[in-house]
Amino acid sequence: MANDRVEQTVDICRGCRVRDPGNTAPADLCASVLKRLGLGDLFPLVIAKSGVDADGSFFSMRLRPEQVEAWAPDLDTLKLASTLQLDTLGSAQDLTREIIVSMLMAPIAFEFPSVDELVSAVRIRINIVQAARKTTLAFHTTEAERPADCWRYDEDRGFVIRPGVSLTTALIKATQPEVSGTLYSFSCYRASEYVILLGIAQELQHCNPALYAKLQTLWTEHPIKSGQFHDVFLREQGSMDQPLPSRFFVPGDRTWFRNPDEPSADASGFEGSWVMYLGGGLFNNFWKRDMPYTLTDKCLEIYHWRHGLYKDEQGEERVDEGKVEQLVQASMANAQEVSRIVALMQRYREPRGVYTAAGGCLDTTREFARWVCPGTTDLMLPSP
User: Fold this and answer.
1) Which end of the chain lies in a sparser environment, N or C, as judged by fewer CB atoms within 10 Å?
2) What is the C-alpha to C-alpha distance for residues 192 and 274, in angstroms, rounded to an integer?
3) CA distance 64 to 46
4) In angstroms, how far apart are the furthest CA atoms of the chain?
5) ∠ CA 166-172-174 to the nearest 5 degrees?
6) Are 33 and 110 in contact (CB under 8 A)?
7) Cβ(61)–Cβ(45) below 8 Å
8) How many CB atoms lie within 10 A of CB 329?
9) What sections of 288-320 are H helices per DSSP?
10) Rounded to an integer, what distance in angstroms lies between the CA atom of residue 30 and that of residue 142?
11) Spatial separation of the C-alpha atoms in residues 275 and 235, rounded to whole Å
12) Cα distance from N-terminal residue to C-terminal residue, the chain
């Protein structure tokens, strides 16, 4: 049985793929990449090969199947940090290790045009995790605020940064109350964009200052958001037809937990929940940063949204979060109830606009940053 599982792992793991390797042997390239990331000890556990496909030559790196089976059976990476005894909160190097080990067992290959892009991708993920841990917002479905010394509101374009203000400073002050001293109100969707943008911008300052300068200018004139933000800044893996394994996450991923209950999903702000995966089995909590969610926590919360639904004095659909919190705590005290709710919610979500009894809250895809290095970036900023 164990051998069968290992063989199955061989079929589903693709790891990382780097283009244009030149004449360097795959093993030497792999050793060089891991050493550059401070993870040279992983080399004996990685399979490195060269290949050619329709897009040209490449070399690939993936974790040995027996190691995947030992560390993350069924590609469940939520317990990876615990299994490897990593302190990803206290050690950036441990966080790097969790990111790389997860990427090396990816069921869809992470593609990079160069080793530099792979390294930048890891650094962006670290930046995103560290920013998401510090981000705390005031929840409000109809109001939006930003620190006035960094931002101004434009009726046509939304919030833009003031001339001469650093983009990274403006993003940090808007999202991190330990810096600004204030909680600002905006949606979890916009907050996830700010966290991702900050992670990308910090890496651009390091590896591609010219592109960072263009990004800085753009945000003083025409900030990008919503669908355009996704198209410009993000890659997406998985699909409704070919979903990623439900418990496969890499630190720095953005994911969506959908509210599968149609009535409560009509309440503004409760259609679902956008979060960043922090590693260690935890997802960030934009409202209470010191109380990140486990997958079970998130499933229970979203499940009970339906029980907190009410209409306000204006007849608008609302969700009583205090009631939801009480119901979550009551459910947590009953192991059988937790199992029932988790079994219901940890199914893949239905397509947007579709609600059935079979639909859960788990998304089929993950989102992460595009390439950013000079000469290989595919992050194409629009004209203001």
Assistant:
1) N
2) 7
3) 5
4) 71
5) 100
6) no
7) no
8) 11
9) 295-304
10) 50
11) 16
12) 58
Q: What is the pLDDT along the chain (384 residues), one digit of tens a residue?
A: 444 444 444 468 999 999 977 788 999 999 999 999 999 999 999 999 999 988 889 999 999 999 999 999 999 999 999 999 999 999 999 999 999 999 999 999 999 999 999 999 999 999 999 999 999 998 665 667 899 999 999 988 999 999 999 999 999 999 999 999 899 988 889 999 999 999 999 999 999 999 999 999 999 999 999 999 999 999 999 999 999 999 999 999 999 999 999 999 999 889 999 999 999 999 999 999 999 999 999 999 999 999 999 999 888 999 999 999 999 999 999 999 999 999 999 999 999 889 998 889 999 999 999 999 999 999 999 976
**Is the dihedral angle over the CA atoms 239, 245, 247, 248 positive or is it negative?**
negative
pTM of the model: 0.95
Structure tokens at 213: 């300068």
In Å, what is the CA distance from 153 to each residue of 74, 150, 173, 174, 251?
47, 11, 16, 13, 33
Rounded CA separation 378/28 (Å) = 27
Q: What is the model's pLDDT at position 100?
A: 98
Fill in the DSSP letter of residue 138. B
Q: CA 275, 278, 283: angle at the middle one, nearest 5? A: 40
Contact 343, 250 (CB under 8 A): no
Pairwise CA distance, residues 166 & 150, whole Å: 8
Q: Which residues pair with 255 in a beta bridge?
A: 275
Give the pairing of strands 110-112 and 16-19.
parallel
The pairing of beta strand 56-63 with beta strand 110-112: unpaired
Rounded alpha-carbon distances, angstroms, from residue 190 to 108, 122, 275, 319: 27, 23, 11, 20
* Helix, strand or coil, per DSSP, at residue 117: helix
Q: Of 313, 275, 320, 319, whose CA–CA distance to 293 is shortest?
A: 275
By the 8 A CB rule, do 120 and 372 touch? Answer: yes
Residue reference for tokens 């560390």: 71
Q: Is 274 exposed, middle or buried (0-12, 13-18, 19+ CB in 10 A)?
A: buried
Distances in Å between the Cα of 241 and the Cα atoms of 115, 237, 244, 349, 363 are 31, 12, 10, 12, 12
Looking at the DSSP bridge assignments, the partners of residue 367 are 236, 254
Token pair listed for 132: 């998401």
Structure tokens at 15: 């790891």
